[in-house]
Amino acid sequence: MNQSKPRWLKTLTGLTAIATLTVPVLAACNKGEGPGDKGEQVLRIATPYYGEEDEYFRQQFTEIFEYNNPNIKVEIVSAINQDQYRYGPRPEGEKPEDPNEKMKELMNSDNPPDVVMLNFEQLPDLISNNMLKQLDADITKDKFDLSDVVPAVIDGIKSAGEGKIYALAPTFSSQVLLYNKKPFDDAGVGYPKDGMTWDEMFDLARRVSKGEDENRVYGFSFNQYNYGSKENLFHEMRTYTAPLQLRTFSDNAESMTVDSDQWEKVWSTMISLSKEKIFPEPIDYSKMDAARRAQMASGEYNPFQNNTFMNGKLAMTLGHTYNINELIRSNKNAANIKGYTPIDWDIVSMPSHPEFKDVGGNVYLNGLMGINAKAQNSAAAWKFIKFINGEDWARLKSKSVNQLVSRAKYIQPRDGMQYNIKAFYTMKPVPVQDEMSELYREFQYIGQVNDMGREYFKKAIEGTVTVREALKEWQTAGDAALKQMKDNPNAPINIMPGGGSMMMPAY
């Protein structure tokens, strides 16, 4: 089980300085909204990782709320004790703690939290176990307007609750299709559009791919960087396969499910695009001209040396807000970047599959919070969630360049520019597969069964076996690995490609 901290917890926002300037404004907006009880109330907020001493969480979510509500004391409690292995490693053979199970234990404890911070993957499980309070009644009672909350957030939340709302998220992140206009102009091809299918996008990529070796302009890449290995495509294409909800093994992890027509179609599509040189190829240093080799040998710094898009060699790629921010900064400072040519660019919504229209793009809901069904202070809990998902908080938070607030009114292009900012929030999150989430929590090494497929994909892309033969081999080896995992759940899998035994590293 990967216990790395969620991405939203790693983003620095500089909220403290902003809050200092905006607290009076927010206080004025919320004047007269103090708790009815003049005595001190305690609001307990449970997070997966961060506890009472965490400064970032308070800066991000609670400081302004506490300022506006002096009678409410916020206590932050962590579901996972981050200090337990600080002074020594985990004992050999001890299974890592499951954050989801630890959160459920905390919610059912004698002193349960009122507010619960969640990952989107946890939401269906908590809802199905009746552990979260439904928020629709409070939303209706207080006439809390959610009409401006973007589809990427509100539709994803409703899908997890079968149309009902059990949590809200004040910010989110997602992907878009970022494109360089020049390759399209050079090829006389129209620009990408919102709402394209993957096949339509791949067709555009073929039409703008041209040139050879160092002069090659590639049509599309799942990322901007050249990592020098075609088999990396095995992991990158998960963005393409996730909306299809393709599974590598069955609901009970008894057998593999990769020996199928659908998996064959996906692999064949990716390998065909690779062979057509639609995707960027590994750098072949032997074919570089003398000037380029001399430049690299001299150690001359090029900030975009391995960034195919920023080098103007890539027509389309997937991008996040930080990619857009880098592009804007680079264009502004082009005169100071040797060899860099400003890029005329725009964005459109992520491509989707016809059978799963408007789903995909790695939508991530940041700060997703719900109310514990056993909350001791449910009124204060709703007041807090309403506050951080309200317009005042969104207006303040929209000053950040690293996050997108959930209210469309405050999602605007940077610096007065004109680009298709709506592309960031039209897609919906991929629905959570409850069975798969449960298996990943139960078996800490089950991810290795997926990762071992990379070796079989490599064989297929190199042409030593057909696509279907490679999938059959993965099916056979994966079945053996699943059996080993079931027999010894706490041991790493040691089935190697081809069916022999070896210790596979944890990814």
Automatic annotation (TrEMBL):
Biased-composition ranges, Basic and acidic residues, are: 89-107
Q: Which SUPFAM superfamilies match?
A: Periplasmic binding protein-like II
Q: In terms of domain of life, where is this protein from?
A: Bacteria
Q: Which UniProt keywords apply?
A: Cell membrane, Lipoprotein, Membrane, Palmitate, Signal
Q: Which residues cross the membrane?
A: none
Q: Which residues form the signal peptide?
A: 1-27
Chain positions covered by the region annotation Disordered:
85-108
PANTHER family linked: ARABINOSE-BINDING PROTEIN-RELATED (PTHR43649), POLYGALACTURONAN_RHAMNOGALACTURONAN-BINDING PROTEIN YTCQ (PTHR43649:SF33)
Q: What is this protein called?
A: Extracellular solute-binding protein
Q: Which organism is it from?
A: Paenibacillus oceani
